[in-house]
Amino acid sequence: MPRLPSPTLRLCHRLPNPSPKTPIQTMSTQQTQSPSKPALRRQIKTRLSTLSPPSVSEQSLCAQNLLITHPTYTAARSLSVYLSMPNGEARTNVLIRHALERGKEVFVPYIYALHPAPASSSNGDGDGDAGTQRGKKKKDMAMLRLGSVEEFEGLESGGWGIPCLPSEGLEKRANALGGFGPLSDRKDGDKDEGKTVDVVVAPGVAFDSSMARLGHGGGFYDRWLARACSNAKEKKPYVVGLCLAEQVVGNGEIEMGERDRRVDAVVVGDGRVLTVGDGVGPT
Predict the structure, then answer these.
(1) Where along the chain is composition biased (Low complexity) (predicted)?
(2) How many other C-beta atoms lie within 10 A of the C-beta of residue 130?
């Protein structure tokens, strides 16, 4: 596959408020009353349902091209990237191909059942992602290595049309936090303290310019990011939210709990990059 052309902002139809000369915006002090998390999820999902597929494609390409030129991504040797839905969020197909073609280690999510199940749901579930609900089978997320562009393009779609890793051969896939296979299948002696990734590209239902993130309600990323940051001996992963313009809300609209993880930057499909400073891990 030929090298991608340099990103061009002519692909980005900006909203009226951001200035084309100043794509980097910093945190605002404006605060608004937070709606409930379920209510905000419904609002954003209703807004996203009106987007046409061409709009999602155009914004996705713009956001991915912006991220590809971000210095932190350029310097990264490893990253974890979500596998995107066909609609309703920024796609990641261009980013994944770009990273693999340049020899970066790419890790993608794999959701698995915990065995045995935890005694309670108070095991690091993020408040913003609602955590796992009682009465349901407990699940968790691992980041496992994707081997090649060819493997990525051959992945079959699972729930919500999201590509997913096959369940066969998981024990041979490198885990982003060390060892092989999902965390539930690893022994304590296999854990590699200090092993993590350089960059995490995280999905979300909504983001704001204070770096707050509202997830889909499973708590998977809040828990995994907590493990990834605690596993890091020196530099924590740089966490980037990738989203469409319709997913950016005003500061204070996203209710944040004590276990919720903020991101370090938000790359938006209208050409904006929201940040509160480079090189700082999520808190």
Answers:
(1) 22-38
(2) 19
**Do 142 and 154 touch, CB atoms closer than 8 A?**
no
| Average confidence score pLDDT of the chain | 80
- Which CA distances in Å does 110 have to 14, 62, 246, 251, 264? 34, 27, 27, 31, 23
pLDDT digits (tens, 9 = 90+) for 205-264: 999 989 999 999 888 999 999 989 888 777 899 999 999 999 999 998 999 988 888 999
What are the CA-CA distances from residue 108 to residues 158, 192, 197, 233 (Å)? 14, 19, 11, 22
Going along the chain from its start, the domains and CATH numbers come out as 54-204+213-242+271-283 (3.40.50.10420)
pTM over 0.85: no
Q: Token digits for 160?
A: 């919500």
Distance CA(7)–CA(62), nearest Å, equals 8
Neighbour tally for 258: CB within 10 Å: 6
Residues 6+ apart with CB under 8 A from 17: none
| 33, β-bridge pairs | none
* H or E segment and range at residue 37: helix 37-48
